[in-house]
Design a protein that fits this description.
The complex is a heterodimer. Chain A is mainly β. Chain A has no helices and 11 strands. In chain A, strands 2, 4, 5, 6, 9, 10 and 11 form a 7-stranded mixed sheet that branches. In chain A, strands 1-3-8-7 form a 4-stranded antiparallel sheet, with no helix packed on it. Chain A starts with a strand and ends with a strand. Chain B has no helices and 11 strands. Classes of the chains: A mainly beta, B mainly beta. At the A-B interface, strand 5 and strand 10 of A face strand 5, strand 9 and strand 10 of B.
């Protein structure tokens, strides 16, 4: 089974600063990868998903972007953070037909 | 209407009790269903998939009702360690849609 790594675990950033969150996966090849955000007390919102290197689909318009430079690496970025970008960012990997497993997450606070 | 809706709870139950809650979904074409458990400030962890015939895993039983478009989770003989938020997930197409979660608190 795969292992999903995310870093950093926690991040505090000022409004207007850039962002880069990284997700790497071990134990599988050519995975489908996903970025979710969970705002405080709310459900998981799918932000991006990727079926392969360089292939990114965006689910919601926003000031975030994603990239997949390598098969098992998925990066979430922003050029200028907003207060509303605060939340718990989760990377997920699909295994089998439909099942998704999550990484440990990055908790982002924008001040 | 949200794709997936859950009663947020909280469900406060004593140890040993049975607790059950539902999750409704709007897309009748949904094919895959899951329950995840999420502890405070942690990532969701897959609890179980939900099969058409219903399935059981120890003290946990999941059911699917396609006619009424809901899935359910029942926890028997609740343990303190069952305290968590339970998220349902439904796959209507290529992606999973999650409910906001049902919080369960088991008290001694």
């Amino acid at each position: 089974s795969q292992t999903i790594h995310q870093w950093p675990a926690t991040l505090v950033q000022p409004v207007g600063s850039p962002l880069s969150l990284e997700c790497t996966v071990e134990g599988t090849s050519n995975p489908n990868l996903y970025w979710y955000r969970q705002a405080a007390g709310r459900g998981l919102q799918l932000l991006f998903y990727s079926v392969g290197i360089g292939q990114i689909s965006s689910e919601v318009p926003q000031n975030l972007s994603a990239s997949r430079p390598q098969d098992r690496q998925f990066i979430l970025s922003s050029k200028k953070l907003l207060l509303s970008d605060s939340g718990f960012y989760l990377c997920a990997c699909r295994q089998g037909k439909d099942t998704q497993y999550f990484g440990p997450g990055t908790r982002l606070t924008v001040l | 209407r949200k794709e997936v809706e859950q009663d947020p709870g909280p469900f406060n139950v004593p140890e040993g009790a049975t607790v059950a809650f539902n999750c409704t979904y709007s897309n009748s074409a949904s094919q895959s269903f899951f329950w995840y458990r999420q502890d405070c400030r942690k990532e969701p962890k897959l609890l179980m998939s939900v099969y058409s015939s219903g399935n059981e895993d120890g003290r946990f039983t999941a059911q699917l009702n396609r006619a009424s478009q809901y899935i359910s989770l029942l926890i028997r003989d609740s343990k303190l360690s069952d305290s968590a938020t339970y998220l349902c997930a439904v796959m209507p197409d290529y992606k999973l849609s999650f409910g906001a979660g049902t919080t369960v608190t088991v008290r001694a």
